[in-house]
# Entry
Amino acid sequence: MKYSIIVLLEKDAEGFSKFLETLYEIFSSVSESFEILVAANGLEGFLKNELENIPKCNDKLKAFILDKKTTQAVCLKAALKESCGEIIIVCGSYQQITRDSFINLLKSFDKDTDIITPWRRQRVDPSLNRFQSSLFNVLVRKMTGSKLHDLSCTVKIFRREVLEETELYGNMYRFLPIVADKKGFRCKEIKCEHYQERGKTGFYSPSEYLTRIIDILTLYFNTRFTRKPLRFFSTIGAAFMATGLIIAMYVLIQKIFMQMSIGDRPALLAAVLFLAVGIQVASVGLLGEIVVFTHGRQKKEYTIEKKI
# Structure
């Protein structure tokens, strides 16, 4: 099997059956074997109704429903186990790039490529959506050093071993190209023509923004300090301890040279607090180093490109 197209269905999506038909037509024109897998995060009733509207896709279509609401990573893991393709195409529940762009992505996937991610250079959705997406991608680039411009697009193409050798968890699916790139896989970004989407327009809930911020911070830590947590925590701890020492020196100078009472001053308590917090934070980093040293050999951090 050449291609496995995994469609992650997380909520009711208008025109979902039409999107599946579009995928079927695109890959039928490529003249390669393929299958379409729908991984539904719940939504049994919706999925059954939609599948009844696309009988022509039945010979290539597989669908399964997870027993409870879960994350994108879990859906993708489950779908990967059910798939057979050498190349895995992952997308959301609605169309984000045009047919021609989709075909161009497939043609660009050569033997020297492990991951392809689209860049919808000329967005056609509302300005608020464009601003939010742009801000998100800028933050990710600044925090990780990545050069990718459009992680908001759910369409991704992977060589199978990329997904098998890269850890998937939580809501980190959208960052997979960055994580895989850090492991040595070859990632390519291709400019694509944006398709008029049916996705959400406007502001999201506060919890959604908080989740995105936490995801970016998690990505920052995992791509820079997973193998050296002491460097991260000791930097923070040193900042706290330095602040505590400066305050303590200031109070001590006042006591020695100005004969000022310090027993009842908040500054002394603040100095002790900063020093204590700094030591605790640095200790967390030390514990992290011990854990990494103990279990680090179980984690593979490299990929073999070829054997000669």
User: Anything to note?
Assistant: The radius of gyration is 25 Å.
